[in-house]
Design goal:
Helix content: 10-25%
Strand order of the largest sheet: 1-2-4-5-3
Radius of gyration: 19 Å
Number of helices: 4
Oligomer: single chain
Largest sheet: 5 strands, mixed
Shape: elongated
Distance between the termini: 75 Å
């Protein structure tokens, strides 16, 4: 019995071309990262919402142990991206003060994940 002719594909290059681009993950104009389910940081790393709002004890643990941390209040948006809400990632020495600030005000904490299992604590501080 004759075999069916095989369809030839472009191979791996064609599969890669069919994948969504980074721009597909880019935050929509002024959409909040929690509502969008993720965000692209200033370095091009995509952070996907993993869980939240978190209970205070877990948020406090992530404030120390997460790979990255950011405050989601209106003072902490990246100035280089005027058309999107891109949070500024905090330096390790800024974390204790940021945690105290969030704890003193109304806030909700969220955990975001990136490639390689990296975690980010996102503290959304309300006015």
């Amino acid at each position: 019995m004759p075999s069916k002719p095989r369809l030839r594909t472009g191979g791996f290059a064609e599969v890669l071309a069919a994948l969504p681009s980074r721009e597909a993950h880019a935050p929509r104009s002024r959409e909040h990262p929690v509502a969008a389910g993720g965000f692209l940081d200033a370095d091009g790393c995509y952070w996907r919402l993993a869980r939240g709002p978190l209970e205070r004890r877990l948020a406090k643990r992530l404030a120390v142990g997460a790979d990255e941390m950011t405050l989601g209040d209106w003072d902490c948006w990246h100035e280089d991206f005027p058309d999107a809400l891109v949070p500024v990632l905090l330096a390790p020495e800024e974390r204790p003060a940021a945690w105290r600030k969030a704890s003193a005000e109304d806030h909700q904490a969220y955990e975001f994940r990136a490639a390689g299992g990296r975690t980010l604590l996102y503290l959304d501080v309300f006015c």
